[in-house]
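Cross-posted from the bioinformatics board.
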Amino acid sequence: MAGVDDVNHYFRKAARVMDLSSRIERLLVTPHREVKVDVSVTLDSGELGTFIGYRVQHDRSRGPMKGGLRYHPTVDMDEALGLASLMTWKTAVVNLPYGGAKGGIAVDPANLSPRELERLTRRFVQQIHDIIGPQQDIPAPDVNTNAQIMAWIMDEYSKMHGFSPAVVTGKPVDLFGSKGREEATGRGVVWALEELLADLGAGAIEGKRFAIQGFGNVGSWAARFIHEKKGRVVAVSDVTGGIRNPEGLDIPALVAHVAKTRTVQGFPGTDAIGNEELLALDVDVLIPAALGGVLTAANAKDVRARIVVEAANGPTTPEADEVFAARGLPILPDIYANAGGVTVSYFEWAQNIQQFTWDEERVNTELHRHMREAYATIARVARERRVPLRTAAFIVAIGRVGRATVLRGV
Amino acid sequence: MDFVDAVCTRLCRTLSREEAQDLLAGTQLLAAGPGEILRKEGDAADGLYFLFEGKVAVDRDLGDGNRMRLAELEAPTLLGELSLVVGGSVTATVRALTDCRLRILARTDFEHRLATNDLVAYKLLAAVAEVLARRVLRLNDTLVDLSGRAAAPPQDDLARFRSKLFSEWSF
């Protein structure tokens, strides 16, 4: 998977700037534990289905591990390891007291009934309950998993270990989930951008033109907040295609349109555009918020945006990254820009442990503080060491993980 | 590779494109093939070399036909920065390992810019100072290691890592 190799590429780039020995690099990259389990369940038909479940726990020097569970046919140990290490670096960049983990089950949930999905999930918990836990490893939703699945995990785990809402995050708000979680990543993206704009002396979001690839959770919430701040979202795309309106899209109306029709297509007052065209639009800010690897050596030179904000994971390939660096185009790296989600997951976990609920204002205030402080640190390292923001972010991550590792001893 | 870009984004980031262009306008182009000697140890130092393409080896003559490889450098990089600052002769022989393309800023040109308070020359000097400072830091570490008297044994990966994280860097 391209994204996994890219994480190691950027890790090594930062490690070189820090002049780390290859043995230290290996220490940091080697995971704590990799677990593969049999998840066999009786299907509704009576047939036995056997699936393989995975959990890779990468690093826990800075605290219990955090990371999502995905249900997808391509899940395997390699993919989980790359994503687990990404979680280690991401939580370190925004200074959450966590390490990184990731996992899932190799299955296509579209082929399962809700009852089968529940049995599968509960069976998986029975198989890994001794390596996860509120102070050990805290899963969360990811591709094809959601709040309902988190609720089943919490329930099954609590049967064995007592009442433990903090064993997973991303739970329904009615079952110990946190307020503000749904829009958290989109909110974090917009606050991250404001920090960059202030640092560049480039003014506010108001009046600037935006193109957003992807109108799912992250893309649509980012669009809403940009619209609220009087930014002009001139183009948006989803898996069915894209739309453009140079005057700026009426985002609240578009959200309602998508809720009804399940697509951005056909929104009144817009022209249709393709995804490649959207990436090359002449805008102030380009926000890839869908798939990885969309900005490549082939199309990097066509990007006319003045700033790229990585709301998706791994949207920029290393070749494209070099092209942008040579041009001096600022990129807000994914490990910082989209960390709003995991940050509010941390707040959910903290509320569960305190057994005290925060109001939405407190959640947002704390999120804003985390995004602001993280930017200040990354920007300072970038300036002092004359490196791009992404390298600086990895340097900060390596530094924090490294400090915790050496203090605890090896 | 765009030479102007290489200068203002990699070699001396405080220079603007215009300043980098101005600087390069006063330089001379030099091309060399593998094995060719670009600077010979002992020759009069003639200026600052900008290596834009290719790879070079930097060797010190140990006498008796022996030489010690100090470094292998890849473009983009500066060469001759030491003699630019302290003057005198070339301190180590620079030999092309592959096809190379360079531009040379003549010493007299550089000194004239300094004398006329040209900001570009001073910015370049600051970038050179940083390169040299880092080299001194590394050499100091090597010196301590070689003396065999270091408190921590040189192979202690964790101790070195720790000292790097807590004294060289802040997060």
